[in-house]
Amino acid sequence: MNVFKTHGVILSAKFLLATCICFLLSVQSLLAQDDPNSFKQDMANLEILRPKNFSTLDSIFKKHATDSLKMKSLIKASKTLDYVEGESYGLNALGVIYRNISHYEASIATHKKANALAVENDNLEFKIISLNNIGVVYRRMDLVKPALDFHTKALDFARSVENPSQTIAYNIAVSQNSIGNIYLILEQYELALKQFEKSLEIEKALSNRLGLAINYQNIGYAYESQGDLNNALRNYKLSLEFNEQINSNLGRVICYNSIGQVYIKQKKYIDAKIIIEKALQKALKINDQFYIAASYINLGWVQKEMGKLIASEDNLKKGLEVAKQFNLNLSIVEADKHLSELYDKTNNYEAALNHYKESVAVEKTINNDRNLRYVNDVIIQFENEAKNNEIKALATENQVWKTKLERNKKVFWYSMLVLAIIVGVLVALYRTRQLSQEKQILTLEQDMLRSQMNPHFIFNSLNSIKLYIINNEKENAVYYLNKFSKLIRKILVASSEKENSLEDELDTMRLYMNIENIRFSNEIDFDIHVDDNINTANIKLPSLVLQPFLENALWHGLSSKKEDKKIKLHVYRTEDEFVMISIKDNGIGRVQSEKINKDKLIKRKSVGIAITKARLANFSKDYTHDYHIDIEDLYDDNKIAIGTNVIVKIPTRSNVLRTA
């Protein structure tokens, strides 16, 4: 069952690395365990110094940032002192603690409090840090849109500073990295690599080992996605070196898993198993549920490849359980895919299918078209903002030419006048074209109504009903008179609407065929069959669009046949973008019908099909595909005509989906 292309379960972790401004506020906490009085002394200094910038606060409290009790004490003391920066720092540090133990809702709420304080105090650095921290949490929850919203706001603030501090410069690097990760989502790996290289340059200038670890990790992922496993492995190992230098267990877990995945793809299963087991051990130690799930799933993956199916099943189920408990959608998808492959190997096809279906369902909630369109819009916004900044810089330089511009003011206004005239002409042309189209549509609808309300049809139908009355067949007369009145009402209602549901269209066609069948002495066997997988109430099509095809089948196919007259209308689907409507008769065929028509003194000219095609063409403009009409002549084994089959393909996917 090779239906899956396996991605790393830590895909979201790699995106997380890109924007993790507070990824390791406490990366050196294990190396800097101070004596019990250290925190008290730092708090005492805080009351005196009251620093305003993040870097000074971080140099004081970084060693305490992983201790939730100390951070709560900092928050409480800062609030008492009315010291907003200290309170904001403590809230952000506490939010990171909550995030790292997968308490995401508490983390978001805490970071939002920090951001509210920064906004109230108009502290730009803390606003940027808080917004980026919120974006990180949403990334951990696989919620791309809100994550990008907050990272974009952070980038807007960072770019507004002319002479940024180191903290703000670092955030710009993080934002560049975020853009790279957006390109990764769109699978634009070359563009992503360019963004990571830009971010890497800033991190090197700042000598920021954490930022270097993050960027090398992302560069490795970009290479891995392109199938360049050697370059991917080299960059993952560089990232691991920097994580070793800053003593980051979280960074080690991420790198171990990434390296393990490359080893699996290189079929180095023993090496992969060893390093993934190390990742699991450290993930359990730091109690980060996200990476615990990732490590269990990767371990189950390599065991599956090694043929250790029982152990693989156990670890994959553990990973899936943790992922479901903490709503880690990407991990759920990966676990389900691997379990599906495992059960396929053990011939447990029902379980394999169930896990495959679950993986597809969850994956749709992550990678839907709406998210991809939103991500693409964000990229355009980033690029436009960069261009706008360049334009602003040029505008400043162009102040020197202000005198020349004043002299050219008349030329400018003349140009604007000409431009206004051109725009006016274009608008007028557009409006004229629009009115022409509306007139064409109205004409088509009027022609359609005249076609359906054919005087001969009405006259003959009423004559048939009158004949029942003359022959004292009251029940038949009442029955068909009711049918006729319903048909006329449906035609009048449908003619005022641009489109109709397929369900109503089929009901109208039943009435039409009932009335027409009177004139054929009820000899016509008319049947409608709709496949079970089609919801006719949700499918739209132009109103009364099927009538001309049924009329042709009656008068050109069956009218000259003596007996065994059948018309079968079948609604089915062979493609997701279309619904197929087949109208099949067992008449004399088109060739024989044309011969008979030529010999008639009074020829029956069918304009309904031409009108129908024009209406379908106009209807299809609102859909991603055009309509199709296929006419098939049916022959028996002796090449004798046995009828005609008309297949109308109605598009069902609206253009609105592209811009929603």
Uncertain regions spanning at least 5 consecutive residues: 1-34, 601-605
Give the CATH topology of the domain at 437-659. Heat Shock Protein 90
CATH homology superfamily name of the domain at 437-659: Histidine kinase-like ATPase, C-terminal domain
Structural class: alpha+beta
- Briefly, what CATH class of the domain at 437-659? Alpha Beta
Shape: elongated
Total of helices: 28
Strand order of the largest sheet: 2-4-5-7-6
Tell me the Rg in angstroms: 36 Å
Strand content: 5-15%
Number of strands: 7
Q: What is the arithmetic mean of pLDDT?
A: 81
- Helix content range of the residues, please? 55-70%
Give the terminus-to-terminus CA distance.
35 Å
CATH architecture of the domain at 437-659: 2-Layer Sandwich
Biggest β-sheet strands, sense, barrel: 5 strands, mixed
Could you provide a short overview of the structure?
The chain has 660 residues and is of the alpha+beta class.
For this entry, give a set of tags:
660 residues; alpha+beta; Serine Threonine Protein Phosphatase 5, Tetratricopeptide repeat; Heat Shock Protein 90; five-stranded mixed β-sheet; two-stranded antiparallel sheet; 28 helices; 7% strand; disordered N terminus
Secondary-structure map:
Blueprint: H1 11-19, H2 37-49, H3 54-61, H4 68-80, H5 84-100, H6 104-121, H7 124-140, H8 144-159, H9 166-185, H10 189-206, H11 209-225, H12 229-245, H13 249-265, H14 269-286, H15 289-305, H16 309-325, H17 329-345, H18 349-366, H19 369-397, H20 402-407, H21 409-452, H22 455-470, H23 474-495, E1 499-501, H24 502-519, E2 524-530, E3 540-542, H25 547-558, E4 565-572, E5 578-585, H26 590-599, H27 608-620, E6 628-635, E7 641-651, H28 656-659
Parallel strand pairs: 2-4
Antiparallel strand pairs: 1-3, 4-5, 5-7, 6-7
Helix pairs in contact: 1-7, 1-9, 1-11, 4-5, 5-6, 5-7, 6-7, 7-8, 8-9, 8-19, 9-10, 9-11, 9-19, 10-11, 11-12, 11-13, 12-13, 13-14, 13-15, 14-15, 15-16, 15-17, 16-17, 17-18, 21-27, 22-23, 22-24, 23-24
